[in-house]
């Protein structure tokens, strides 16, 4: 009989995206369909939590909503905002104690080619190590390849190369790209309206700042291919040249 190592339990942190339905649910689902049409691969590669806090849902209503989301290939990993006794077999588990980090809903752009699952598997996410005592910048001196995810929620992210189409950079602060930005850039992901996105060559699939986002279709072509700074002005993302 061979010796086997003991069972080990490890903690691991993931950045989950929260879907919070807004009545009327039919209209909300229609808006979700429009979003998926523009971003077909977005929900398939993210952990999704369903938040029904404040909604007067019967068990049958919740079951129907979960079924509608499943039909749209949106897999719910847990449900927040409902008592555990309200759920049962066939439902995702109830969740409590989540730490809010503002809205991080950055949809995939319709102009991008959806990433294949194989590409996602072959290019694992790169997560910057957490800051030991204070927020700091994370500098990556290599390009970000398609399918890769750079995530650093404790400060700015600086990419000295380019961000390829199908790649994603998520920062708690600002994002600086010294090459071409062709993928997705999500700045201020933990609630920082002062965050900015700067790129030497601006050709993104999507940008988001403090939960507000714009896809390639929304951005238009006025600043396309230029050196651009994106920042918030009120509740709008504006683009200005920085050369």
From TrEMBL:
Recorded superkingdom: Bacteria
Domain Septum formation inhibitor MinC C-terminal, first and last residues per copy: 140-238
SUPFAM superfamilies, sorted: Cell-division inhibitor MinC, C-terminal domain (SSF63848)
Keyword Transferase set for record: no
Family matches, as Gene3D superfamilies: 2.160.20.70, 3.30.70.260
Signal sequence annotation: none
Disordered as annotated region, ranges: 102-127
Pfam families: MinC_C
Low complexity bias locations: 110-126
Physiological role: Cell division inhibitor that blocks the formation of polar Z ring septums. Rapidly oscillates between the poles of the cell to destabilize FtsZ filaments that have formed before they mature into polar Z rings. Prevents FtsZ polymerization.
Protein name: Probable septum site-determining protein MinC
Chain's gene name: minC
């Amino acid at each position: 009989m061979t010796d086997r190592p003991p069972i080990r339990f490890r903690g691991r942190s993931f950045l989950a995206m929260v879907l919070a339905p807004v009545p009327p649910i039919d209209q909300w689902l229609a808006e979700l369909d429009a979003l998926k049409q523009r971003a077909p691969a977005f929900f398939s590669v993210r952990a999704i939590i369903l938040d029904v806090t404040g909604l007067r849902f019967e068990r049958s209503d919740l079951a129907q909503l979960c079924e509608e989301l499943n039909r749209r290939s949106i897999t719910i990993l847990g449900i927040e905002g409902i008592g555990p006794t309200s759920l049962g077999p066939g439902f995702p588990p109830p969740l409590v104690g989540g730490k809010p980090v503002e809205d991080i809903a950055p949809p995939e752009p319709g102009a991008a080619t959806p990433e294949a699952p194989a590409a996602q598997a072959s290019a694992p996410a790169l997560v910057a190590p957490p800051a030991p005592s204070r927020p700091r910048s994370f500098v990556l001196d290599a390009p970000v390849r398609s399918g890769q995810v750079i995530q650093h929620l404790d400060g700015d992210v600086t990419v000295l190369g380019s961000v390829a189409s199908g790649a994603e950079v998520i920062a708690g602060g600002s994002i600086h790209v010294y090459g071409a930005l062709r993928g997705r850039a999500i700045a201020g992901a933990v609630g920082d309206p002062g965050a900015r996105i700067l790129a030497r060559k601006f050709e993104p699939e999507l940008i988001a700042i403090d939960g507000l986002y714009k896809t390639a279709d929304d951005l238009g072509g006025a600043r396309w291919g230029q050196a651009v700074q994106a920042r918030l002005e009120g509740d709008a993302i504006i683009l200005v040249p920085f050369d």
